[in-house]
């Protein structure tokens, strides 16, 4: 059962996070953004966000095969080098407490993305992590009907 509706209880804070969301939607490639959202949500155990972002990606034309493979992206052959560096950066940023962001992960991403694109990517990863923390903490559940 959901503990609270953060949008109702703290609307100003919720609107601030929505501002970040609008920024990343406007500045990060949609396919990349959905990979980031799905991977971070998987790592954070956010059922609501995994459901929402996999559904959104499917509606946008992403293949179910690639979406399932996000869970094992290092072994899957379905992702290009830019996507792989994005997923590695997503893993490192999402798991900051384990070992920070290793230089090799950052340097690989910096070779694939301009400085501005990389800044936007970091903002996208940070934003989904905020959403995950809100949804997991408040026990926000995905809809049971499709």
TrEMBL record:
InterPro entries xref list: AhpD-like, AhpD_core, CMD-like
Signal sequence region: none
Positions in coiled-coil regions: none
GO molecular function, one term: peroxiredoxin activity
UniProt keywords, alphabetically: Oxidoreductase, Peroxidase
One protein family per Pfam: CMD
Carboxymuconolactone decarboxylase-like domain boundaries: 12-91
Domain of life according to the entry: Bacteria
Keyword Oxidoreductase: yes
UniProt protein name: Alkylhydroperoxidase AhpD family core domain-containing protein
Species whose genome carries this gene: Micromonospora krabiensis
């Amino acid at each position: 059962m959901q503990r609270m509706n953060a949008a109702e209880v703290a609307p100003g804070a919720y609107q601030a996070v929505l501002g970040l969301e609008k920024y990343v939607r406007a500045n990060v490639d949609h396919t990349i953004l959905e990979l980031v959202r799905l991977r971070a949500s998987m790592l954070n155990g956010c059922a609501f966000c995994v459901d929402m972002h996999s559904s959104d990606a499917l509606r946008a034309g992403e293949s179910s095969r690639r979406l399932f493979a996000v869970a094992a992206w290092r072994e899957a052959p379905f992702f290009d080098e830019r996507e792989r560096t994005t997923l590695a950066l997503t893993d490192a940023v999402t798991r900051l407490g384990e070992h920070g962001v290793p230089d090799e992960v950052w340097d690989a991403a910096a070779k694939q993305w301009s400085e501005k694109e990389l800044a936007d990517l970091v903002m996208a990863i940070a934003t989904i992590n905020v959403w995950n923390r809100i949804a997991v903490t408040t026990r926000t559940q995905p809809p049971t009907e499709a």
